[in-house]
Amino acid sequence: MSAGWFRRRLLPGGPLPAPRPPGPRASPVPYRRPRFLRGSVSGPSAADASRCRDVRPVRSPARGRVLPWNAGYAEIINAEKSEFNEDQAACGQLSIRRSDFATEEDEEWLTLCPVEFLTGHYWALFDGHGGPTAAILAANTLHSCLRRQLEAVVEGVVATQPPMNLSGRCVCPSDPQFVEEKGIRTEDVVIGALESAFQECDEVIGRELEASGQVGGCTALVAVSLQGKLYVANAGDSRAILVRRDEVRPLSSEFTPETERQRIQQLAFFYPELLAGEFTRLEFPRRLKGDDLGQKVLFRDHHMNGWSYKYVEKSDLKYPLIHGQGRQARLLGTLAVSRGLGDHQLRVLDTNIQLKPFLLSVPQVTVLDVDQLKPQEEDVVVMATDGLWDVLSNEQVARLVRRFLPANREDPHRFSELAQMLIHSTQETEDGPMGEGQVSYDDISVFVIPLYSRDRGSSGH
Fold first, then answer.
1. Which of 149, 196, 260, 348 could bridge to 338 as Cys pair (CB 3.0-4.6 Å)?
2. How many C-beta neighbours within 10 Å does residue 119 have?
3. pLDDT > 90 in the chain, percent
4. CA neighbor of 257 nearest in space, from 195, 183, 332
5. Rounded to a whole number, what is the largest CA-CA distance in the chain?
């Protein structure tokens, strides 16, 4: 889509306001603490939180009512799980330029990149837990971190092949060959920038929560459109899928204690002090009881995909590092996700054991080559927090998309209405759109991102 069309669609109804640079955009000054966090330890009020630039937490209405986020592609509901909506979102245009732009380098820079700005688009969903504060901070901060990280490596992003050295000094004439042998591509530099941005944002959230005496964390799902590719970065249990006429393709994977069992067990193996003698890292089909002592039972450790048997010892009777199955699985009996932002102060109940060493802020990044995909008019990416996926499968969402878009082809607001319809489909008590009567009581956020633009052809996503 064109940048202008993108900005117009995000504006609320009524007269258009005076033109302003598209958001989100990074500030040239260091990140400044949001107003509601300054000098406060009691948490944000609805009025203060609504002043945040990119997000508007909403007080809970009657359950099931759909509230527009900012009249764009995102729809958010508050299912009364919390006083403030723990789901937050941000989207807008990213304008990236070289951070150390200097006069003597102007000619070289213009040769390398014919325009001063490298433009992309950004969408992000944050699902908070322990309160909305971490999600609000992430929605106001992550895009700035990403822009700074991209500006620091922009020469590598716009080059045909990333150079070994960004300083311009050639240490070894064979450097291009070494880069090629490693298979390093431009998209790898963007992936690295996303990974670094998540880590930087996590550090900012940690400092701000500590300074304000607040706690909490959030999952993060981000999509960035840049140079004909869509980068989907996920840390948590939100999900993104590609829906086409004849294809449904997952663009992210959920990170839960079960899916990351081996990484978590391995950390406990190398650093047993993290468990403080309160937990066992070994996995058993069920939690062991006193009567199991001396019995030979099934187990597996961090190095195992299969199962083996061992004689039960007293230490095996401790609470398991990962307990429960499916949606009920918990890390150290506390948290349902294994990646995300924040949670620096989170401890296991009645202990001094920190969960943060087991929680990664680094996302998994999937790259979709949109130009190569040659998208058709109704090809979309659906991003949503876990409340949607608790009720609907990828295939069910795809069926709803394929049913809705052709029937509303002439509606200029059909993508935002599709996002709204997907949320409504999780709130039906009887004979819902899928005819299964399932209900979600979680806060839910949905983005529907079209990959095709009539104005610019299939590559104008």
1. 260
2. 15
3. 53
4. 332
5. 78
Alpha carbon distance 58, 46 (integer Å): 7
Q: Do the Cβ atoms of 293 and 317 come closer than 8 Å?
A: yes
Determine how β-strand 380-384 pairs with β-strand 87-96.
unpaired
Which segments of 339-385 does DSSP mark as H helices, in order? 370-373
d(CA 75, CA 416): 7
Spatial separation of the C-alpha atoms in residues 461 and 458, rounded to whole Å: 7
What is the rounded distance in angstroms from the CA atom of residue 450 to the CA atom of residue 401? 11
Arithmetic mean of pLDDT, 24-39: 33
* pLDDT on residue 160: 83
Read off the pLDDT of residues 338-349 as tens digits, 9 standing for 90 and up.
999 999 999 998
pLDDT per residue as tens digits for the range 313-360: 999 999 999 998 888 899 999 999 999 999 999 999 888 899 999 999
Amino acid at 120: G
Tokens of 82: 């919390």
Q: Which amino acid is at 150?
A: L
Pair of tokens at residue 345: 């102060």
* Token representation of residue 157: 């992003």
